[in-house]
Amino acid sequence: MEPFLHALNWFEIPVSDFQRAKKFYSTVFNYEMPEVNMGPVTMGILLHNRDAQGIGGAIVHGEGYIPSKMGSKVYLNAGNNMAELLQRIEPAGGKLVVDRMSIGDMGFVAIMEDSEGNQVSLHAYN
User: Residue 51: inside a domain, yes or no?
Assistant: First the structure.
């Protein structure tokens, strides 16, 4: 089997209070999150360039979506200024769990707890 270009096609972060989570992610990433209703679930689309085949994901509220610190580990793109993004986590209702740390040639990571109790990682190359 040939390797895929991307290991990830889409991801979903469960939330228990959609409006609170939408406000959290909109504040931390500094953009207005679009909402989409897909049958019984509500999704908040995380910023990505779909036209350039960027890989996307969403916060999702609905039956079967339960936030957890123990779930899958997702690394969101922190862009070119991770320090600025990290400063917005606590005022938005989250918690910085692991501060920005170097992972050598692969850049930097940090881990936050979002407003719903999920642990979500952040990645940046600088």
Answer: yes
In a domain, residue 1? The reply is no
The candidate with the shortest Cα–Cα distance to 69, out of 95, 105, 87, is 95
State how far the Cα of 21 lies from the Cα of 6, in Å rounded to an integer: 27
Instruction: Give the DSSP letter of residue 19.
Output: H
- What domain count does the chain have? 1
Average pLDDT, the chain: 94
Query: Is residue 16 predicted with pLDDT exceeding 90?
Result: yes
| pLDDT at residue 71 is higher than 90 | no
Residue 19 scores a pLDDT above 90: yes
Domain assignment present for residue 48? The answer is yes
The DSSP 8-state label assigned to residue 9 in this structure reads S
User: What is the CB neighbour count within 10 angstroms for residue 100?
Assistant: 17
Q: For the purposes of burial, counting CB atoms within 10 Å of the CB of 97, is it exposed (0-12), middle (13-18) or buried (19 or more)?
A: middle
As a whole number, mean pLDDT of residues 24-39 equals 96
Task: Decide if 41 is inside a domain.
Answer: yes
| Cα torsion 15, 21, 26, 27: sign | negative
